[in-house]
Write a structure and sequence with these properties.
- By secondary structure, this protein is an alpha/beta fold.
- Helices cover about 30% and strands about 25% of the residues.
- It contains seven helices and 14 strands.
- The protein has a six-stranded mixed beta sheet with strand order 2-1-3-4-14-13, sandwiched between helices. The protein has a four-stranded antiparallel beta sheet with strand order 9-8-11-12, covered by helices on one side.
- Helix 1 crosses helix 6.
Length: about 250
């Protein structure tokens, strides 16, 4: 692992707009997993109207309702700060509304399209079927990750374009909801998902993947307690699937 002269900066974007489901906890997880390894970490909380710095190492976007989501997209689009940061090599992690805002477009409450940031080659429309609510279980297609677990709550359908790959394939739940069984999207150093939980608290290996994009290889941590909780969560989901299939 290379030495760093400065702390890793984690920018939490608009938690009052994009923090409906406690996704701000992802910032806490990232910072603490760095500190446990002796790496300095600073979390910068940026609220609507704040100037977004372009020099942070990692940017986080969480879930939100339709109106706040549109406001966040407009502010980020007008400032161009996230685009500049991505061009400079920053890592971006988006959850739920985050995957939609990062894409080319997402749905307004009336079904019309609202422009996104265009940083991910995805398009989101309003779903016509049942709302995706409940546990989400995903087998990742990204190398080195174990089964991912989270909680989804959205009524949208996200279609992946040719320049992104899915984070994984849905085992339980709906994920992107486009009928192809995909969940999430990955392109370069941008990774997005519909998993709440917070996602990085439930899936520390995913947190470490994001951190490795910033600092390089990381020494392992003792994640025994988290592993025990993950095992129970996976067991619970599989019991639910067994009952439904009886």
């Amino acid at each position: 692992m290379a030495e760093r002269d400065s702390a890793v900066t984690v920018a939490l974007l608009y938690p009052e707009l994009l923090g409906t489901y406690g996704d701000g906890g992802n910032a806490v997880v990232l910072a603490q997993r760095l500190r446990w390894r002796g790496i300095g970490a600073e979390v910068i909380t940026l609220r609507a109207g704040d100037t977004v710095p372009t020099s942070c190492d990692l940017y986080l976007m969480g879930g939100g309702e339709d109106g706040p989501q549109a406001l966040a997209a407009r502010e980020l689009s007008e400032s161009g700060a996230l685009h500049t940061a991505v061009d400079a090599g920053a890592v971006v992690f988006g959850t739920c509304a985050g995957i939609q805002v990062l894409g080319h477009e997402f749905a307004n409450p009336d079904g019309s399209s609202h422009p996104g940031l265009g940083l991910l080659d995805v398009r989101t429309v309003r779903g016509k079927g049942r709302r995706a609510v409940g546990e989400l279980l995903v087998e990742p297609v990204v190398d080195g990750l174990p089964t991912l677990t989270g909680y989804e709550n959205h009524g949208a359908v996200t279609h992946l374009g040719p320049s992104v790959r899915p984070l994984g394939r849905v085992v339980h739940g709906l994920g992107n909801g486009g009928g192809d069984g995909s969940e999430g999207a990955v392109s370069g150093r941008i990774l997005a998902t519909y998993m709440h939980g917070p996602a990085l608290a439930r899936n520390p290996a995913l947190a470490d993947l994001l951190l490795s994009w910033v600092v390089g290889d990381l020494p392992p941590l003792d994640d025994t307690e988290v592993a025990d909780l993950r095992t129970e969560r996976l067991r619970s989901v599989r019991r639910t699937r067994w009952r439904r299939n009886r």
